[in-house]
Amino acid sequence: MRRGQCQLADEDAEIEPVSTAGGGGVTVPELDRLGVQPLRTRQPDFAPSAMGFAMTALYGGRSECHIRRTPVPITYTDFTSMYPTVSILLGLQDFLTCARVDGVEDDPAAVAQWLGTLDVEAALRPETWGRLRGMALVEPRDDVLPVRADWHANRTLGIGLNCIVSAAEPLWYALPDLVASALLSGHAPRVLRVLRFAPSGDAAGLRPMHLGATIEIDFRRGSLYRALITRQTGGGAYERRAVSSDRRGSDRAAAGSRVTGLPQRCGS
Q1: Digit-coded pLDDT (tens) for 22-54
Q2: SS3 assignment for 150-192
C-alpha cells in the first residue's frame, strides 16, 4: 500500500490508492486526464452488435502449458513491456484518439487463405500486425482456440486453450487468436465472416499530461506506450537479462508501475 501511495503521489494521479486493483487500475483515470472519451461517447452510432461481438471475442492474456506433470529442464525467460509492445504493433492507440471507428466487412475466403499461408517468420513481421485489427466469425474444426468454460465444476468460468473439434454455433475470435490457431494447428480456420475496424479522424478534447517530472504524454503528438517503454528501458535498446529467483518477487511488485510508467522512488 505504501508503495502504491508513493507512486500515485509522484505521478499526481487523482485517484485513491484503495480504489486500484494494481498498476493497471491507474489506466482509466490517466486516460481521463488525457481527455480520452469512451468510444460510445465519441460515436453514439457505433453498432451495438459490433461491440457485442468484440466483447465475446476478448480473451485477454493467455498462459500455455504443452507438457504437464512431467519434470523437464527449463530456461527462465522474460519479455520487456510485452503488452505495450503488442499494443504498438497493432496500433491500438489509434482507437483511443480517433473521432470514430468504422466496421468494414472483408472477404472471408481471402482472409482464410491468408491465414493459411502464415508461418512463424511472417507472424513476427511488424507489417503483419497491421492486418490484425479486427475479428472473425469462425466454425471451429480441430482449431486451437481459447474457450471459456466451468473447467472445475465450481460455477466459475475460466479460459482454456483447447483443440476445438466442433461447436454448437459459430464463434467470434480476434484475428491474432486465429493467427495463433493456424500456427498451432497447421491449418486455417473456417472463416464465415470478417469484420475489420478502421479508425478515422481526431477526437476532440485530447490534452497532455505529465508522469512524474520527466515525461510528458500527449496523444496528439506521440505514443503513450512508446514513451513509457523508453522510460522503462532508459531510452536505449531492450536489454536481455536473466532474472534470478530471489528477484522475481520485487520484479512482479514493480510490474504495475512499469506498464503505466509510474516511478518507483519510494521504498516499501
Answers
A1: 444 456 788 888 999 999 999 999 999 999 999
A2: CCCCCCCCEEEEEEECCCCCCEEEEHHHHHHHHHHHCCCCEEE
Residue among 173, 143, 140 at smallest CA distance from 56: 173
Question: Helix, strand, coil % (nearest 5) of the chain?
Answer: 40, 20, 45
Is the predicted pLDDT of residue 246 greater than 50, yes or no? Answer: no
- In whole angstroms, give the CA distance from residue 133 to residue 138: 16
Q: Do residues 141 and 166 lie in contact, with contact meaning Cβ atoms separated by under 8 Å?
A: yes
Burial per residue of 139-178, b for 16 or more beta-carbon CB atoms within 10 angstroms, e otherwise: ebeebbbbbeeeeeeeeeeeeebeebeeeeeebbbbbbbb
Q: For residue 248, report the phi and psi dihedrals to the nearest 5 degrees.
A: -65, -35
> Residue 195, class by beta-carbon neighbours within 10 Å (0-12 exposed, 13-18 middle, 19+ buried)?
buried
pLDDT of 6:
57
d(CA 246, CA 87): 30
Mean pLDDT of 98-124: 96
pLDDT at 14: 56
Q: What phi and psi values does residue 115 have, to the nearest 5 degrees?
A: -60, -35
Q: What residue ranges do the domains of the chain occupy?
A: 1-36+219-268, 43-59+76-202
- What three-state secondary structure class fits 203? coil
Q: Are 156 and 150 in contact (CB under 8 A)?
A: yes
For 149-170, write each residue's pLDDT tens digit.
Answer: 898 899 998 888 889 999 999 9
Q: Measure the CA–CA gap between 138 and 132, rounded to whole angstroms.
A: 15
Name the nearest CA neighbour of 54 among 40, 69, 66.
40
pLDDT at 185 over 90: yes
Residue 226 CB neighbour total at 10 angstroms: 15
